[in-house]
Amino acid sequence: MSNFEALFDYVQTLSGKMLSADEKQVFRAHFKPKKLRKRQYFLQEGDVCKYTGFIVKGSARTFTVDEKGHEHILKLSVENWWLADFESYYQLTPSRFNIEALEDLELLQITNAQAEEFIKPIPAFSAMQNVISQNNTIAAQKRMQSAISNSAEGRYQELVNDYPHFLQRFPQNMIASYLGLSPETLSRLRKNALK
Amino acid sequence: MSNFEALFDYVQTLSGKMLSADEKQVFRAHFKPKKLRKRQYFLQEGDVCKYTGFIVKGSARTFTVDEKGHEHILKLSVENWWLADFESYYQLTPSRFNIEALEDLELLQITNAQAEEFIKPIPAFSAMQNVISQNNTIAAQKRMQSAISNSAEGRYQELVNDYPHFLQRFPQNMIASYLGLSPETLSRLRKNALK
DNA sequence: CGTGTTTTATGATATATGTCAAGGCACAGC
DNA sequence: GCTGTGCCTTGACATATATCATAAAACACG
Question: What is the pTM of this model?
């Protein structure tokens, strides 16, 4: 059985509300544990993203492949994040993205329909969603501003400040792709930054 | 008296719920009409963004100024959008952004505290917020993907597809800044695109 | 261990985009 | 109808970043 405690902690911490025993049962009834091994795909381009998965353990990348065959990483996801292409998940349209496990993944997943019907009425959960929505708005704005105003080096420095653990956890070529850079450019950047 | 009908239409359309006469009164009691003339500032860097404003008429830009004195436009906003630096608005921290009217502006504005207490309990309003939150997530993801995967030309083409009216409404140098380009580069891009 | 695979580093070169400078065009206000 | 101001274009040149090729280093796994 997968670990629901991580999810309960997360919902309670973010919302500032406790979950009752009954409410926890609702979570257990509708979230399905799912495991993926490293390199397995959570979502493939062209498929509909039926589930969002709460990451109990592991990590993943969300990426596209362009006409030249180059991959571009839009998102890197770790524990306590929600894994999905939300465009596809909300609208049930085919996704333009691939989502692949970078480390063995343990998820608790649910469909949008089930979440709307059973989970969203739980006050702690909808409060959590509001907090996440605010955080996302702020993070998206910050990343976008960095993308249009900063040089490659500035964007890298911002990543170092905001997500230092990414540097330990993910290979440098993935970080480069996340920043919109070639691996060579990031390698040179780091050499120069050491002075 | 400013025009609340635009706001009511917007809330009702997005939420799919009607507003009662009483609920409309709550809106009238707490949203304050505000006018700004072209070039006036809605927010200055370093100030707290106390209000969010629903744009009844006009347009604005949200931008930063870097160390070299260059401006970078993060957002262009028109009718039926909400104007604010939401990081500062939610957290009441000093903003890193300036928001300036590009055309005469008519707003209906409200503080976060008032919105939370009086407006959010209105079902149509909170439903609208959920829809906006989803739309923002999708739009932010799309723009970010464009920023890391596309060339300057690709980003411009995407703007032409997604927001064609921006091209009529805003000068080309503002569009360039929004795309993270110099005005000269955009000018050349457009010349080549004509073939 | 050893061996194949992945990741990182480095050099040479190509390409995209920025910067600076100048001129022309358009429009607002007198 | 002038005139100033802001916007757009164009050219020459500078700089940042990508690409391609190769080798070294790190890692995974039988």
Answer: 0.92
